[in-house]
Fold this protein.
Amino acid sequence: MTVLEQAAARFPRIPLSHLPTPFEAMADLAAATGGPRLFVKRDDQTGLAFGGNKARKLEFILADMKARRFGSVITWAGTQSNWVRMCTAAAVRFGIKPILVLKLRPDQTREAADGNLLLDRILGAEVHLLGPDEDQPAAVERVAEAERARGRKPYLIAAGGSGTEWSMTEPLGAVAYALAFEELWGQAQEQGAPLTHLVLASGSGSTHAGIVVGAKAAAPEVEIIGVSTRASQAEGEANVLGLARKTVAAMDLDLEIEPGDVTVLDGYVGGGYGILYPAVVEAIATLARTEAIFLDPVYTGKAMTGFLDLIRKKRFAPDDAVCFLHTGGTPALFPYREEILEVIEGDATA
């Protein structure tokens, strides 16, 4: 048992994921871009409810929920949240009532039951939809109080499983991704591809924080690059640094996480969280047409936009081995169909 495995063993865990997920070369993408050796870690294939990175986190979070004997779970995010879809599925698997407080984007007035929201409804979640200007923290508190008034004990989980002042889960999601880094590092070694860089989407921060901790413990020579999907560089780096340090403390690891260990690039956010723009569509199409791998518009599409731009800018040396962490989210493709086709079909007729 490794140091990270020993440290994580102090937390209860319920198997939910199909592990290990594949670690694959992306030779066609490398040829098309003139890049170095490229790889992808397929955490879109974790198995639970269309897969995604949240399954690993929920193994620890659901175990915590069960140990505390909670009968319902309240979580919150945007209407096309991958986290919400997977949290709902995990809760249903274990007889826990899922309650969702979902907020429309600033550019929305309504949301059709499509993509992740459709899956949430099929799974039987209690859904509370908020307008763009409504106060989500206040709504969460109202919903929680109503649930308590019914005699039930709700477990509150922040979006992404990252933990906030409202959440009871911090830093369990990051613990899962400290282990995930060790898994992918071992696979890379087996394939004769000692990694030099790993690129991933950086949103609520717990996946990124866990990867930073895992890398610092198992392979500190690997540079971890987060591509922000919402926050500024300063805000994103501060958030990930704080979560990584809390994870080290929770796991009782003999590590120091320094500011230089955390990199968040904020040049690919575009108009804001969940707002699509043409370069993201082009990145989604590029990966689909070279490797037949689908990304989502909110997280992995923006991360791949940054990934491809870093290759174009010669950020990586020719002999580097660079991995893209695919965190899933493909159900969110479908609500964006019109915007995606407008770009793709426009390119085809240009």
